[in-house]
């Protein structure tokens, strides 16, 4: 999916009863920095208050989102910003998860880390065959955030969720579908498949579908809020570990990390 705008990090397009929300930092594979997170939160609130019934969340360029912007984080080591950013991520995820619309995450290319958590907050995840999917926080000795624990456990169960998180391996769309992480894998004409699914929804009694979503969200929201808080506390602890410092050093030096369990 490609658009030419260079001025907005999140683009919203309305077409009748459907809105498309596009992540737009293609030069960095739509990596999520503080500014983009804030803009995405604002745009999602705007869409939530609109009269559309279906929302498609997608990414511009070669991928959906490579996750949190590690280079941005390294350039600003002000620890006082950590808590507010995590709170903003939590608000973003809750806004997306509880949005009174039918939300489809349309992913392609790299979809990893916080980007994957974001996609899983949608109601339906459809993936192009080009997708490279990973909950890869472990590669820099961190834990999933953005509700990653909650969404993976809900989709695949506790035992498999732990294995996916601990391994941090890259999967293609069909591997992710086989595990139950996503809902559909598309071999060809991905954009047409997305339009077709949105069209099918729009021909159904969406008020009833959204009411079912609302009931399940209200039931599960306390658990998601608890997980988001636990992830915030856990991530803060992990950022202080020697293993995390080694993971970041290895990332910058383009080498394999050597972890000592500290």
Descriptive labels:
6-stranded mixed beta sheet; 10 helices; single chain; 262 residues; alpha/beta; 15% strand
Q: Mind explaining what this structure looks like?
A:
There is one protein chain. Helix 1 packs parallel to helix 3 (82-97), helix 3 runs antiparallel to helix 9 and helix 5 crosses helix 6 (158-167). The protein has helices spanning 34-48, 70-75, 82-97, 114-120, 148-156, 158-167, 173-179, 190-202, 206-239, 242-253, and strands at residues 10-15, 18-23, 54-59, 102-107, 110-112, 124-128, 132-134, 184-186. Helices cover 49% and strands 15% of the residues. The longest helix is centred in the last third of the chain and has 34 residues, at 206-239. The chain is globular and about 55 Å long. The protein is an alpha/beta fold and 262 residues long. The chain has ten helices and eight strands. It has a six-stranded mixed sheet, with helices on both faces.
Q: How are the elements arranged and paired?
A:
Elements lengths: L9 E6 L2 E6 L10 H15 L5 E6 L10 H6 L6 H16 L4 E6 L2 E3 L1 H7 L3 E5 L3 E3 L13 H9 L1 H10 L5 H7 L4 E3 L3 H13 L3 H34 L2 H12 L9
Parallel strand pairs: 2-3, 3-4, 4-6, 5-7, 6-8
Antiparallel strand pairs: 1-2
